[in-house]
Amino acid sequence: QVKLVESGGGLVQAGGSLSLSCAATLGTISTYTMGWFRQVPGEGREFVASITWATNYADSVKGRFTISRDNARNTVYLRMHSLKPEDTAVYYCAAGMTPYATTYSAYPYWGPGTQVTVSS
Known about the structure:
Blueprint lengths: L2 E5 L2 E4 L4 E9 L6 E7 L6 E6 L3 E3 L7 E6 L4 E6 L8 E8 L12 E2 L3 E6 L1
Parallel strand pairs: 2-11
Antiparallel strand pairs: 1-3, 3-8, 4-5, 4-9, 5-6, 7-8, 9-10, 9-11
């Protein structure tokens, strides 16, 4: 079991950058596939990126977002560049056992989320 908490969300102008962190406050992330998802009101949770031994990205963020992990710090990061208004969402960190998983159902453990708002 692992308990996750996201941080780093906020308001940024289009074209700007923001970095999110996801820290495990219970358990260790080293044995998990870690993922980032995002959700806007009225829509489902959308896959953004995942990292196991390698990384996997949604086409919409490829080349702009970078996922990384520091197992010693028990933390996963999502660095976001060239942000667009359509990146506005609540961003969630998740942990699961399936390598390179992109679906919501593959991740049993979730953080509470952090809001990212990109103004035009």
